[in-house]
Amino acid sequence: MKNFHKNIIILASGNGSNAINIINNFSSANSSVSKISIKALVCNNPDAPIIDKVKNMYADINLYCLPFKKAAERTLFEKGLTEIINKYKIDYIILAGFMKILSNDFVLKNLNKIINIHPSLLPAFKGTQAIKDAFDYGVKVTGVTIHFVIPEIDSGPIILQEPVFIEEYDTIETLEEKIHKLEHKMYIKVLELISCGKLKIADNRVKIF
Ligand code: GAR
C-alpha cells in the first residue's frame, strides 16, 4: 500500500484564520492518525497577529518569523525558507493569507508544491484586495479559488473553486465573513485530497480522482 503521508509548511502574513483552522484540523494534538504533518508555520511579518496566536495557543508548532516586508528582503527570506523546507523534508508549501510575492526562481524550484488560497473566482479579481474589489465592482457572484502557484501572480492550475453569492443585503463585512467561512472549509478539503494522494496535475490541469 502506498504511503501518502505529507509534510507541510504553512506561510501566513496577518490574522492567520486559515492557518489556525488548518492547525486545528491537522495538528498532531488533535489527530494522531492524520496523514498531514504540519512541520512549521512561517510568518514574514513580525507584527502579524498570527505570531502571538500560535505562541499562546499552539506551543507545539515550530514557529519561524522571517522578516519580508520590502522586496529587498525576499532573497534572505527565501534562503531561510529553503533551509526550513529541506530540514523538515516538506512536500507542500501552503500559502494561507501569505501576502508577498515569491520569486520566479523559488516558484520554479518548488513547482507543483506551492498551494495558494485566493478570495475570488480567479482569474477575476487578482491582487491583495480581491474581496473589496469584487464588492465594489458589484458582481453578484464571487468566491474562493485554491490553486497551485506558478510564476504568474494569482494564476496556476486550479484545484478547487467554489462560488459565494453577493446578496443585496450583504456588506463588505458580511461578504468577508462568508468568504472566510468557505475558505476554511475548502482548505481542509484540499489537504484531505492531498493526504489521500487524490490530486494529479496533467496538461496544466488538476485532476481529482
Ligand atoms: C484570506 O481571505 C486569503 O484568501 C487572502 O487573505 C486572507 C487572509 O486571511 N489571500 C490573498 O488575498 C492572497 N492574494 P487569514 O489571514 O485570516 O487567513
TrEMBL record:
<feature type="binding site">
    <location>
        <position position="116"/>
    </location>
    <ligand>
        <name>(6R)-10-formyltetrahydrofolate</name>
    </ligand>
</feature>
<protein>
    <recommendedName>
        <fullName>Phosphoribosylglycinamide formyltransferase</fullName>
        <ecNumber>2.1.2.2</ecNumber>
    </recommendedName>
</protein>
<dbReference type="GO" id="GO:0006189">
    <property type="term" value="P:'de novo' IMP biosynthetic process"/>
</dbReference>
<dbReference type="GO" id="GO:0004644">
    <property type="term" value="F:phosphoribosylglycinamide formyltransferase activity"/>
</dbReference>
<feature type="binding site">
    <location>
        <position position="69"/>
    </location>
    <ligand>
        <name>(6R)-10-formyltetrahydrofolate</name>
    </ligand>
</feature>
<dbReference type="InterPro" id="IPR004607">
    <property type="entry name" value="GART"/>
</dbReference>
<feature type="site" description="Raises pKa of active site His">
    <location>
        <position position="154"/>
    </location>
</feature>
<dbReference type="InterPro" id="IPR036477">
    <property type="entry name" value="Formyl_transf_N_sf"/>
</dbReference>
<dbReference type="GO" id="GO:0005737">
    <property type="term" value="C:cytoplasm"/>
</dbReference>
<feature type="binding site">
    <location>
        <begin position="16"/>
        <end position="18"/>
    </location>
    <ligand>
        <name>N(1)-(5-phospho-beta-D-ribosyl)glycinamide</name>
    </ligand>
</feature>
<keyword id="KW-0808">Transferase</keyword>
<keyword id="KW-0658">Purine biosynthesis</keyword>
<comment type="pathway">
    <text>Purine metabolism; IMP biosynthesis via de novo pathway; N(2)-formyl-N(1)-(5-phospho-D-ribosyl)glycinamide from N(1)-(5-phospho-D-ribosyl)glycinamide (10-formyl THF route): step 1/1.</text>
</comment>
<feature type="binding site">
    <location>
        <begin position="99"/>
        <end position="102"/>
    </location>
    <ligand>
        <name>(6R)-10-formyltetrahydrofolate</name>
    </ligand>
</feature>
<feature type="domain" description="Formyl transferase N-terminal">
    <location>
        <begin position="6"/>
        <end position="191"/>
    </location>
</feature>
<comment type="similarity">
    <text>Belongs to the GART family.</text>
</comment>
<dbReference type="Pfam" id="PF00551">
    <property type="entry name" value="Formyl_trans_N"/>
</dbReference>
<feature type="active site" description="Proton donor">
    <location>
        <position position="118"/>
    </location>
</feature>
<dbReference type="InterPro" id="IPR002376">
    <property type="entry name" value="Formyl_transf_N"/>
</dbReference>
<comment type="function">
    <text>Catalyzes the transfer of a formyl group from 10-formyltetrahydrofolate to 5-phospho-ribosyl-glycinamide (GAR), producing 5-phospho-ribosyl-N-formylglycinamide (FGAR) and tetrahydrofolate.</text>
</comment>
